[in-house]
Amino acid sequence: MKPIGPLMWEHRLIERMIALLGAELSSIAETGKIDDHFLDDVIDFFRTYADRCHHGKEEDILFRELGTKPLLAEHKAIMDGLIEDHVLARNTIERLCVARQRYMAHQGSLNDVTDCIEIIIQLYPEHIEKEDKHFFFPSLQYLSPREQDAMLAEFREFNSKLIHEIYEKVIKAREGKLE
Ligand SMILES: [Fe+2]
Ligand SMILES: [Fe+2]
Description:
With 179 residues, the protein is mainly alpha-helical. It has helices at 4-31, 36-66, 73-104, 110-139, 145-178. The chain has a single domain, classed as Four Helix Bundle (Hemerythrin (Met), subunit A) (Up-down Bundle). Helix 1 runs antiparallel to helix 2 (36-66) and helix 2 (36-66) crosses helix 5 (145-178). The longest helix is centred in the C-terminal third of the chain and has 34 residues, at 145-178. It is globular. The structure holds fe (ii) ion (2 copies). Residues 55, 58, 82, 86, 127, 131 line the site of one fe (ii) ion. One fe (ii) ion is lined by residues 7, 11, 54, 58, 131.
């Protein structure tokens, strides 16, 4: 298997969340209310799965390796754009978290929440298309079969450590509150 395989499977799950988020946006437009529990899941999904698990493997492993290669200018430009997209996605989810808290506390507007959702719904499908159709396959030309196998193994190791990292962080944050 190529290392881009697992990344592309992960895109399919992110697309399913984007579809759910689109339905939530329509529901907000109709009812003027947000599904707070769903937004909780949305924020967790984008922080943990999309950003830490998925962007984590792209940035910390794939892009790191590609950064050591003599990339063509067009591929370097796409990679830089992808990293900017990750930053925008990450910042927008943090803005959504704040907007949602403010809205629930009757201190912020519904528009602040829907603005963030609209950015996410537009950003991810475009970002995924850039990676799936214009970057992942060309990126393989820079990696030997041995490097690709090593990358796949590193992806697996990254995934296996993730759940431990996440729950250790939960415990440390809680312990910090007790100090
Ligand atoms: Fe990405
Ligand atoms: Fe991706």
